[in-house]
């Protein structure tokens, strides 16, 4: 299927897209389904993607990365998704955690983490969501207390944290007290998985995915001074430096999933014959699939815009575009999966065609990492200047 979005890409981007598509094709949906059913993780695909330099394509070259940006990393995730084997931890480990450490970490933190994140030998999870706060950074109750010796003590809870069981550490969003104002301000801390007081409990999900979801408890977790990432007074800036790539990568995840579903539906519509003609010859089948294709292409264009703005250092512009891209991609993905299942009829619900499980998976992009309603709030307030209701 031709894609309009590739017209806006460089020759290097097109080559990267083709190479990753070839890698994804060697694994595919069947591989990911088999690994998930066995309760495992896509370690072979992760290792191969790392070996080829895809996992760290956005990280600085001096720390073992590819020297690219979120534009390149989003291509990797989209193409793996289009092949049916997306790697969700790419959204978290290199995109959020790697970006934050590369931009704001100390030299010691960069040398300790970036080479491993780039070559896939180390992974990081990201903990921001809380039971009573969701992703509202202003209501986060996980607190960090500085001790007299410069160390920190963290107390609180996090929920829906992906991949904690396989992550070497988790980048935790906590809040510290501002002595000048008496208010709490967000800060980021690297918490090693074996740190005393750092507990986890797997959440029982209906969603079947290789990456499990966890609730975390931080019970007087003591951390060295070097666990704080960046400047204590720039926590909010640093936080959103990670959240914008998260939204771009979620868009890539959704677009890839939508493309996979659409490809399966188009192939079926070309071959499935009722009476005399393939069902794809009928406009009732063809037009909805064409509409889905258009919506996915439009979502990709916004994703590319967001990635370019972010990589160019325009955090404000990237914030608006990344939210729009995530919204558009999620909506397009849900419709793509729904229409694809509908095209196949009963076959769309069989294991053979690998679409039924996407009905649940496609909804994730609508609610995570931020709901579509909160994105609409953001656009109405920040883009349109309308008053808030909260």
Question: Describe it for me?
Answer:
It is globular, with a radius of gyration of 21 Å. The model has no long low-confidence stretch (mean pLDDT 93). It is an alpha+beta fold and 390 residues long. The chain has ten helices and nine strands. The strands form two sheets. Strands 1, 2, 3, 4, 5, 6 and 7 form a seven-stranded mixed beta sheet that branches. It has helices at 11-37, 43-51, 70-82, 89-104, 107-119, 235-271, 283-311, 315-344, 356-367, 372-383, and strands at 124-127, 143-146, 152-162, 169-177, 184-192, 198-202, 213-223, 273-274, 277-278.
Shape: globular
Structural class: alpha+beta
What is the straight-line distance between the termini? Answer: 45 Å
**Which stretches are low in confidence, meaning pLDDT under 50 for 5 or more residues running?**
none
The number of helices is 10
Tell me roughly what share of residues is in helical segments: 40-55%
Beta-strand percent range: 5-15%
**Averaged pLDDT, please?**
93
Q: Name the helix and strand elements from N-terminus to C-terminus, one letter apiece.
A: HHHHHEEEEEEEHEEHHHH
Number of strands: 9
Largest sheet: 7 strands, mixed
Taking Cα atoms only, what radius of gyration do you get, to the nearest Å?
A: 21 Å
């Amino acid at each position: 299927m031709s894609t309009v979005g590739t017209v806006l890409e460089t020759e290097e981007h097109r080559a990267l897209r083709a190479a990753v598509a070839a890698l994804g094709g060697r694994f595919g949906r069947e591989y990911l389904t088999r690994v998930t059913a066995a309760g495992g993780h896509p370690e072979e695909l992760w290792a191969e993607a790392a070996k080829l330099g895809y996992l760290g394509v956005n990280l600085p070259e001096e720390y073992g990365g590819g020297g690219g940006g979120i534009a390149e990393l989003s291509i990797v995730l989209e193409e793996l998704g289009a092949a049916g084997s997306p790697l969700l931890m790419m959204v978290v480990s290199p995109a959020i955690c790697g970006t934050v450490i590369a931009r704001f970490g100390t030299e010691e933190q960069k040398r300790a983490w970036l080479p491993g994140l780039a070559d896939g030998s180390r992974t990081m999870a990201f903990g921001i969501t809380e039971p009573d706060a969701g992703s509202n950074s202003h209501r986060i109750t996980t607190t960090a207390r500085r001790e007299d010796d410069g160390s920190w003590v963290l107390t609180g809870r996090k929920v829906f944290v992906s991949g904690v069981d396989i992550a070497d550490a988790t980048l935790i969003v906590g809040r510290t007290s501002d002595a000048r104002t008496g208010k709490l301000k967000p800060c980021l801390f690297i918490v090693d998985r074996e740190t005393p007081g750092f507990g986890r409990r797997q959440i029982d999900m209906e969603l079947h995915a290789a990456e499990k979801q966890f609730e975390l408890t931080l019970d007087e977790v003591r951390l060295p001074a070097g666990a704080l990432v960046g400047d204590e007074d720039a926590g909010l800036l640093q936080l959103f430096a990670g959240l914008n790539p998260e939204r771009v990568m979620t868009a890539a995840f959704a677009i890839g999933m939508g493309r996979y579903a659409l490809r399966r539906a188009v192939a079926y519509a070309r071959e499935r014959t009722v009476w005399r003609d393939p069902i794809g010859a009928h406009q009732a089948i063809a037009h909805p699939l064409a509409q889905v294709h258009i919506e996915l292409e439009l979502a990709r264009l916004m994703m590319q815009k967001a990635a370019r703005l972010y990589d160019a250092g325009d955090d404000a512009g990237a914030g608006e575009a990344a939210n729009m891209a995530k919204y558009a991609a999620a909506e397009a993905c849900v419709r793509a999966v729904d229409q694809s299942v509908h095209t196949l009829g009963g076959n769309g619900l069989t294991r053979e065609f690998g679409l039924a499980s996407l009905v649940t998976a496609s909804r994730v992009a609508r609610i995570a990492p931020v709901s579509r309603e909160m994105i609409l709030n953001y656009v109405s307030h920040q883009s349109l200047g309308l008053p808030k209701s909260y």
